[in-house]
Amino acid sequence: MATKLVSSKKGPTIKVKMPDTRYVDFIRSHYIDKDDENPPPTTNTRIKGFHGDIKMGGGNFHITDEEYPEFLKLYAEKIVANNELENLTEKQLEEGPILIDVDLKYSLDVKSRLHNDAHIESLADILSDELSKMLQFDENTNFNIYIQQKPDVNVLVDKGITKDGVHVIIGIKVDRRTQSDLRKRIIPRIQDEWGNLPITNTDGWEDVIDNAIASGTNGWQMYGSRKPNHDVYRLTNIFKIKFDPDDNSVQRFETPLETFDVVKNIEKLSARCKTHPSYFFTSEYITERSNSPVSVNSTRQTAAMRRITGTVNSGNVGLLAISTSEQLKGALDNFLDGLAIPQEYDLREAYDYTMILPESYYGIGSFVKWIRVGWALRNISDKLFIVWVAFSAKAANFAYSSISDLFNSWQTFDLKNPKGLTKRSIMHWAKQDAPELYKKVRATTIDHHIDQTVKAITLDNLGSDKNARGCGDSDLANVLYQMYKDEFVCVSVKNNVWYKLKGHRWVENDSGTTLRKAISTIMRDLYWNRASAFMEQATSIDPPDEERTKRLQEHADKILKICERLGRANEKKNIMTEAKELFYDSDFVKKLDSNPYLLSFKNGVIEFSPEGGGVFRKGYPEDYLSKCTNIDYVPVNEEADAVIIAEIRDFMRKLFPIDELYNYMWEHLASVLIGKAITQTFNMYIGIGQNGKSVLMDFMSVCLGDYYAGVPLPLITDKRTKIGGLAPELLELKGARLAVINEPSKGDQINEGMMKQLTSGIEPIQARAPYMLQAVSFVPQFKLVVCSNEFMVVKSQDHGTWRRIRVVDFVSLFTDKPVKGDTEKPYQFLIDRYITEKFDKWKPVFMGMLVEIAFKTRGVVKDCDRVLSASKSYQESLDYVGDFIRDRVVVDPEGKITKQTIKYEFEAWYSSNYGGKLPNIKEVHAYMDKKFGKYEKKRAWLGISIRLDDTIEDEGEDDDEGEDEDENDIDVDDL
After folding, report:
1. Distance between CA atoms of 530 and 689, rounded to whole angstroms?
2. Which of 86, 335, 480, 500 has the greatest count of CB atoms below 10 A from its CB?
3. Are residue 910 and residue 834 in the same domain, yes or no?
């Protein structure tokens, strides 16, 4: 408050405290008028709304970087120090502190906070651990993690939910891409650690960590501000993070809150703080960013992006001065003339193919195609910016003043993005949309390489040695490469493994036989035509010139000798040997079927969108698809397909006669189409004989084609160390969408670690075919299913295992004589022994129905009580630790149990009830920690004790006393 001196005629001068209006005056002076025709950028926004009866007006504000420290000081002294009402948010910086918004939603019956200090500590540990893998930490690393929480949960009766949350600020300066990547890394780990929280978020744990905050699209609630009618977030924890280079691990230390003055340190809690430390990327993370670059739809390029992708060629900068078509033509001619031939002949070809693309690639309404041409040119070479300018200049509305804008866009194009667009892509577009011009350009370019093989384009180059071979095997192999470089790829030189582009799919071609045949047919004809042209020229010289005619005939003879070579088996073998090196692509197998959002049909490709929906489009070589459903995609027509739709629904309804199971299975089967493990589940189809499991899987096999895979049982029963060796059967799983294990034997035990890896959606597995020198690493895209009459054995009881398992009961019985009213088997239906004959008719309609569902659900499968209940029963049947606790542990407010006691009691109990090898006692300790609190704090588990033998006897003697004693028992519901 300011002080003012006031004098009085009747008394002495007195001091009166005046209201401090500095903050209000400041914020008003930086308000952005809605009518401003050229408004400055918004840095802060006030949310409009009510706090009880108090109305808060909204608005946008612009505060410069120079003024921001003053603003924060006034804000902290006015709002934070006095706990006054304010609704301000901050716009995030392109490079600023890491901000994380944890949004937890529960059902209305939750009235108090469910997470505790252990959850918060695990969150801090996960964040610091993942950051240590992304950034280069050393002994000088020192930064804070600030945790903010509200006093209690927010019960929203009108919305039918209870909300809670955590705001996290990490005092490290990073770019937006790094924040988004960190979010992706922590989601599965938080799901594992916090999985006991009964969240109801629509998209599960993917929805818990706010993507809008990580991507920077949403503003950040200023510390001390709040949403209308909501409580304010307050600082609850400060964790200081350091790095121990000896252990190569991060260390967490908690800072007492009383040592941190929020008002003085308000800048550290601001989303626009620029004083936090920054760190270099690790090699591992640089590789990750390079292999999975950010979307090029953004026209912004941060310094971090440029550090990875490189800068543009300095020669491009001079193009910015071009203002006329004559200047552009001159610059383009200089560029083409300056290319080193043949070393840079690829750049010339890229120009030739680009410039024949029709108006649909550069005219009005062509943006999508036009920008893809730019992406492809940048991927080929940074030198091709001038080609993109020349191509763009073909548009009727092109303005030379826009070249600088083109240059800025060119800089944002990632060198390895998007989706592998290359010269091969441009050639494919030209072939599809300008076939006649494509043939002419292609003939011209191949002629060039043919001329190179005979070393004679002009008469002056003709040699005098009639017996000269004219060229080597590698020269001829190069011609073959120019002819078919967009259609063939060699993936193993040693084992002679080839792929050929067939339609929009890459299919294996036995030893390159098709290419080998082309040497003695198509390629030989090209040389024959060239020889014929020389002979025709020799006979048409006017006036006659004997010497020139002789030399032309000698030249034709040289070409004819090459024609003879192209027809000999040994020569073809030698050419193919050299061709392997030219066609070889070491990363080709790795790229095959690697996009989880693409699903190949015979007539095109479904491209699903992570945000929902998708498109059906033609396929491209750069899609790198080898698998196919082997059926045409046909959108569902409710009228035309009414009969088949009814038959399919009847089929599904009989398989799953219970409504919630029926709905679950439609979503589950639709999720198979998208190769992302969104729900990370392992589904077990359980049922005894003639219940439809095999028929359903046969139908899915017919529908999915190559995307369906049978899985060898050892994949989930053997140890992980056996995975990754010579395993061609595992390589077949690359790109598969449904992997099925059929009928394991009774007693087969699941390797929980391998099961988690296969269902995580982020952990790669390795496989190697016999022709491979190194194993291929890939992330499984398939949904894992086991069809069985019996449950497999699961030893572990950890949450990470059981949150994945979903038991689907096949309750129907298909028989020749169905019985109605059978209480043991209530769902009996007449068996159709010819149902598989309907599959060919059903499959396109069924796939169309699944695609529609996948467009809506994005691959998310909502759990249902029937499946969760069956899964819980399965878990309890294997829960020996839970059985032990129910048998031997009772509630005792004064009691405590040590590790030594629990070890003795458990081993005796297990030997008596199960026998055999004892489980690891650490599993029992972990179970006890989760149910009764951490052991380390008091060196014991408190509030419980071991049940005494005479207690059991007493309970049997007196029913009333027994009921009283039961109140202390550890029941299943207590767990």
Report:
1. 70
2. 480
3. no
Q: Which element (helix H / strand E) includes 185?
A: helix 176-193
- Nearest Cα to Cα of residue 804 among 191, 157, 330: 191
Helix, strand, coil shares of the chain as percentages rounded to 5? 45, 20, 35
Total Cβ atoms within 10 A of residue 489: 24
Question: Phi and psi (nearest 5°) for 560?
Answer: -65, -35
Q: Please classify residue 216 by burial: count the beta carbons closer than 10 Å to its beta carbon, then call 0-12 exposed, 13-18 middle and 19+ buried.
A: buried
- Using CA of residue 846, residue 847, residue 849, residue 853, what is the dihedral sign? positive
- Quote the number of domains for the chain: 5
In which region does residue 365 sit, left (phi positive, over 0), alpha (psi from -120 to 50) or beta (all else)? left
Please check the confidence at residue 783 and state whether its pLDDT lies above 50.
yes
What SS3 class is residue 169? strand
Q: Classify the C-alpha dihedral 178-179-182-183 as positive or negative.
A: negative
- The one-character DSSP state at 719 is -
For residue 927 the two structure tokens come to 């179970």
Cα–Cα distance between 418 and 101 in angstroms, integer? Answer: 29
Q: How is residue 894 annotated by DSSP?
A: E
* Phi, psi at 252, each rounded to 5°: -115, 130
Q: Which helix (H) or strand (E) holds 392?
A: helix 385-392
C-alpha to C-alpha distance for 529 and 535, rounded to whole angstroms: 10
Please give the residue range of the domain that contains residue 841.
Answer: 642-873
Do 890 and 799 fall within a single domain?
no
Q: Which amino acid is at 711?
A: V
- Across the chain, mean pLDDT equals 84
Residue where a domain stops, chosen among 433, 461, 484: 433
Domain boundary among 850, 873, 896: 873
Same domain, 797 and 848: yes
Residue 441 in this model has a pLDDT that exceeds 90:
no
Q: Cβ of 133: how many Cβ atoms within 10 Å?
A: 13
Residues 701, 720: one domain?
yes
Per DSSP, the chain holds a count of helices (H) and strands (E) of: 35, 31
Nearest-10 crossing angle of helices 921-932, 880-888: 60
What token pair was written down for 521? 């047919």
- Tens digits of per-residue pLDDT, 922-963? 888 888 888 888 887 678 888 899 988 644 444 444 444 434
> Does residue 5 have a pLDDT over 60?
no
The three-state (H, E, C) secondary structure of 860-882, written as one string: CCCCCHHHHHHHHHHHHHCCHHH
Q: Kindly tell me the burial class for residue 906, based on how many C-beta atoms sit within 10 Å of its own C-beta (0-12, 13-18, 19 or more).
A: buried
Residue pair 654/644 in contact (Cβ under 8 Å)? The answer is no
Q: How far apart are CA 403 and CA 414, in angstroms?
A: 19
Strands (E), 126-248: 142-149, 154-156, 161-175, 220-221, 234-244
- 443 and 356 in contact (C-beta within 8 Å)? no
In a domain, 637, yes or no: no
Of 656 and 5, the structure prediction assigns the larger pLDDT to 656
Q: What is the C-alpha to C-alpha distance for residues 760 and 681, in angstroms, rounded to an integer?
A: 8
689: left (phi over 0), alpha (psi -120 to 50) or beta: left
Task: Tell me if 241 sits within 8 A of 145, measured CB to CB.
Answer: yes
